[in-house]
Amino acid sequence: MAITSPIDQAATLETEPSSSARGWAAVRDFARRRTLGAIGAVVVLGMIVVGVFAGPLAPYDPLAVDFGAMLAAPSTAHWLGTDAFGRDVLSRLIHGSRTALLVGFGSAVVGATLGAVIGVGSAYFGGRLDLLLQRFMDIFLSFPLIVLALALVAVLGNSIPNVILAITVPMIPRAALVIRSSALAIREMPYVDAARAAGFGHARIILRHMLPNVIAPYLIMLTAFLSQAILLESSLSFLGLGVQEPTAAWGLMLRGAAVDFAEAAPWMALFPGLAISLAVFAFNLFGDSLRDALDPKLRTL
Amino acid sequence: MWKYLLKRFLLMFPTLFGVAVVTFFLIRVIPGDVVELRLAGDRGSVSDDVLRQERARFGLDQPVWKQFVVWTTGVARLDFGTSMWTGSPIWDEIKLRFALSLQVAVMATVIAVLLALPLGVLAALKQDTWVDYAVRIFSIAGLAVPSFWLGIVFILAFLIIFRWLPPMVYTPFWVNPWQNILQLIWPALAVGYRYSAVATRMTRSAMLEVLREDYVRTARAKGLVQRLILVRHALKNAMLPVVTVIALEFAFLIGGLVVTEQVFNLNGIGLLLVQAVSHRDYTLIQALVMLVAGIFIVVNFLMDGMYAWLDPRIRYR
Amino acid sequence: MRDRTMWLVSALVAFAFVVSAGWGAPAFAQDKPRHGGELIFVVPSEPPSYDAHQEETFGLIHPTAPHYNTLMRVDPFDKTGTKPVGDLAESWAISKDGLVYTFKLHKGVKFHDGAEMTSKDVKASYDKIIFPPAGVKSLRKESYSSVEVVEAPDPYTVRFRLKYPESSLLLNLASPWNWIYKADILSKDMHWYETHVMGTGPFTFVTHVKGSEWVGKRNPNYWDKGKPYLDGYRARFVTSSAQQVAAVRAGRAHIQFRSFSPPERDQLVAALGDKITVQESPWDCLNFVSLHHEKKPFDDKRVRRALSLALDRYEASKNLSKITLVKDVGGIQVPGTPYATPPAELEKLAGYGHDIAANRAEAKRLLREAGVPDGFSFTLKNRGIPHPYEPLGIWLIDQWRQIGLNVKQEFVEPAAYYPMLKRGDFEVTMDFQCGFIVEPDLDLPRFVSTSDANYGKHKDKELDELYRKQARAVDPEERKKYVRAFEKRLLDEEAHVIYTLQWHRIVAHSAKVKGWTITPSHYLNNQLDTVWLTE
After folding, report:
1. pLDDT of B317 over the 80 cut
2. Which of A128, A272, B137, C199 is the most exposed place for a label (fewest CB within 10 A)?
3. What is the pTM of this model?
């Protein structure tokens, strides 16, 4: 069972398929019972709003170099100061949230979805396919992430889609493992056997019976990946492996001049660091509460 | 039981082989090779003749499958060859760095366990009170703050407030324990904090699960100490996932601390790996990836073994 | 006429500069060199192999050069780094026809194993460099293509016979890479020096702990009596630049010999005040932009000139020098060195004039004329290195935006950068060059059409001819004329490449370190024989 057994254990499912009605009531209930999670959700929503309306919200062009204002301390003109090129830190933070969200959602959705497809397929068809896919997952799990990221960037370059790819690759096996074990439990259920006996096709059984039941772990993986992806993106950018100047991105804002001027112009390093921490913190709060609500036993994330 | 373990043991080898294949071909897809890099230097131009000669010396002119066969037969005899960048045996390149990474990993693990167990248990016992919230916020913050940023703040604080800097050069523990600890305690703290966050959350959930068991619930009236005694037995099994997380994280730490190592100037395995990739030092990359992946795979095997031993059902899956 | 006077003035200034630097250091001699102490320095990169004949990184020179001597060396007190003096050579003579160089060696020079160093060792070392046997790599073989044979007529005489005269040979023999090895060892194993150290230098080898440090100790039998002053040295390998600065600041290291960035310098000065000595120099390294001559519209010289005209080099000099390793506006020779173009003359080149509005109007006109639409977009490839590549890239893009161009930047991982250049996989790319001694023969060959490093693939017979003429010119004034013409053709008329700003080297070190002078090259002046510590 290789790497999977601890997770198999931890992840036996017992969520009831929830009736999707009562939507608004569920949200209210969530907010009341899981205050921390609700706070996280509000911050996340705020971040999305800022990202969507970055253009009108940002006081300056995030790319405009202005040597006249280089390294200016926070003031009424530049609320969070300027960087070594005189670019407005606040404007770059605001536009940077787009990069963070794009990379975060992009890699989380792709990673969790591909993981789900592989996990469900592996569990449903079993046998040799399962064994083979499991070996592949093992290989990618044990492979050092940094080598993968370095290789991808060196081969494909530093565009946002490539950064998403680099972050996604190690996520897939993790999602696949968790979702496979959930799906395995469903597969053993009598009604799946019944459906098969009744002569339903694979596609129908997977769509009707397997997928709805892995939605909970899928959502949980998704939210967990979101925060990890934002953090990873900033680490990669910091190492020079992520998105590239002059694009506004938080990790990038911490690189180079921010370190050089850490003492003379601390605002350059302080605010992007806070932005990353706050975003990851909020996504985590929300994700944790969501997990508790959906499936208290699924912890191996 | 033994049959299961044997099967698990044997399954490690195809995985290791797969890692070898992926590594070997992946790094050869990356543009640029060690010869060009060593000779190009800062001036950037060298004749094709010299390049050809050097490639031949490393056997890089051979067909790739041949190179792979040569390398894998070497590895099978535990001979990883010499570094293409420095010309020294691989083990000479790795040994001190491995000692350093191993030590940081051990220290961070100790710190994480010391933090996580009491905090996790406490949070679970006081679920949904301010104690629980505080612990969760503390641990999630550990996950949220980028470690490289924390490192920069650490070092600046030392310099500005204390006008002091941790030692810069690694002294093995057996040479000078004090110098050694003085250098490694800071990165271990920075890493241990993040690591404890994962373990704390796991401990909390494991504990909550135990608390839901009937006999524990019925004992609710009896006061905290007695409840803890009751819980102890149930906890042993529930703690398995916690141990798993700690073990896997430990395996990850050996090669995964790239940014932290950079910020604290630790010449550990993670940074060496990055350097090796940027030098296209094929032999060294291959050896390091096999080492890091090997540790991960072995730790997993041990964990599985432990599960099988404790929970007979697994053997038959 | 006016130009001539200007040139005379700047020549005088340069001369005064050299003299004051040359004599300036001994003028400190009131504080007499003190013996003792261990110098600790940080090195941002580690040696690949130990054999300098086949390496090209300062990561080898800095920790290892103190173990060796070279035949000639660059005067350790000459700030321009262009004055050859003897190292193992006590004296030398050049035949009238310029074809025979004869060197007399110091007597009583001992290798660290006790054996005497003689002409046989010099010959063996240079034979390895100039005529490497099969399977032995030598990086600088081509620089000595004029040499026909190296002879050792007696134990203390070495003779170089040339096929044709070459005025730059003497300087080339002062190359910091050409360490003198022991003939007996080389005859047994040409690769021995890749993993071992055995020289005649002022310090003997103690240990190299990989990923950690390199230690050398005073050579008590050093042939240059009284030297070295230090008891030993310790080179610590520290990759992160923030950590390097922190090390000097916290007193855990005295110096880093490559360079700090301006903010790092300011940080050290602010924190340590007069406990820090700052030495600065134009650096013999430069980033320029290469344009692929086979890709439209960069085949059109109007477009290339427009890209150069858009740059406000003087404004950048003022501002970028606050944040990264560049400063002077220069041409194809480092400002202040013998063949450099004086500023007044430089201003006449396209993009070097002070009226930036006029330059940009002209740039826009040229673009229109060449049929390049407003908002035209292309990608600048840049090397993923923080200083000065990244700030320069951001600056270039901003400058080009101001003439209506929409430029994207793509960073290439440092290791993949050189293959990218070689493949020609770019429209416009940041290119670079870095030398160890400022000398046209060493700096300019890469711009000749047939050069391996002509990444933009220009074909320009006239330029090639100008290069050949300057290399063969014996009279310095005549040579200067050709160097100028070469410069005008390369940067202005054809604008084959676009120069940014000269790199600027900043060594901010502990004030305790004396007897070390900055030069335009981080490869030079690392033998440490003249360095001493005040306490």
Report:
1. no
2. A128
3. 0.82
